[in-house]
Amino acid sequence: MIKKPRVRFAPSPTGELHVGNARTALFNWMFARHSGGKFILRIEDTDESRSALSYQINLYEDLKWLGLNWDEGPHKQSERLDIYKEHLQKLIEKDLVYPCYCTEEELEDERQALILSKRMPRYMGKCKNLTADERKQRENEGRSPSFRFKVHPQVIEFEDLIRGAMKFEGEAIGDFIIVRSNGMPAYNFAVVIDDHLMAITNVIRGEDHLSNTALQMMLYRAFGFEPPVFAHHSLIFGKDRAKLSKRHGSVSVGEFRKQGILPEALMNYLGLLGSSFTEGREILSREEMIKDFSLERSSKSGAIFDEEKLHWLNAIYIRNCKTEDLVARLKPFLEQAGYKTDAINTKWLNEVIELIKTELTTLAEVGSHIDIFFDDKYKMTTEAKEILEKDSARQVVKTFAEYLKTSDDTPQKLYPAAIKDVKEKTNAKGKELFMPIRAALTGKVHGPELDKVFAILGKDATLKRLKYFTA
What we know:
This protein is mostly helical.
């Protein structure tokens, strides 16, 4: 019987969820859902000085917001320390590790000396052959040992699902730390034990972990564990081809949430980065992404993060979102912009959002688009003022208002009739006809279709705004 794949996402809670890590989570999640396997969440929180509970909580919220539901976990490494101690003892008994008493300063001096002599920086085995007396002497000096794995001359080879055959020389690696001097397991040690005990079949992660895989393969052999299948996807870069960081702008899922990026838009965009779906499509539902996902199609070269394209994609998702659903998503952003949503008529708000949603690229922009429908938020922009300084423009507005005063009909019939009347009396057409009315009515030079704006505002509210121009 073929085993169902088991994959994991194993972040460290030392900061907000980076979009690069979110993409790794997405790839693992899609792989699991595509193959009918399991997606496990593991928290690698052994770095006590940098890990924070607040980051863990935000991580869970971000994953849930993206819709990346996990099947098992979250497992925390900090709650598994006894397991790592047991496995360290196994390696001690096999004489595959030794205590190292070197200080950070001594290690840095060795590293710099190797660099100056143009050799590969690595640990040269200073503590490898210490006698029992020499070890005791260092411990009496107050030095707590870390433990290093003995690396013998060897070739480390493995097949990567994305990158093909990989090969590393053991001699270039040097003996590496598996347990730190504070007793905490090092990353490569803990991850091998966890992946084995959690029966992980496929490890999907960024290419920056390729060198770690060589170390982990040696540990798999030492324990007699069967290694999982590895797949190292490309990293995300900024437009300058540097690794994506804060200097490129927003880089965390939380930041994009605050901007008003829809989770389905961000998921769609991250799925496209460094991956090609069938027929080169760019707008894909969650179900389509799962169905068409393939690690073999993932690009080996770095993916460029283009925030403009993300906003373009987000605008499409906003336009396609059902208005009732969109209103619910917009309410927190409306509240932030100073609108008391509980006091706004639901039917009227739905009509407004239906009209302006084609103008939005993010949810956070809603305040600057909906303001034209509220008298207390109505403000004249500089561009609108410049248009209305012309006598011809003011005449258009005045004629429009005078027609409204003397006519009575539904907004849907009144607006076109008023426009026709203004056109006949002023000979204005095109921009000269519509721009002054837009500027006076909304205080802006861009926005939704004027006839629909008028239909929502109504005759009385319109005349109130045009009063200044008809005096």
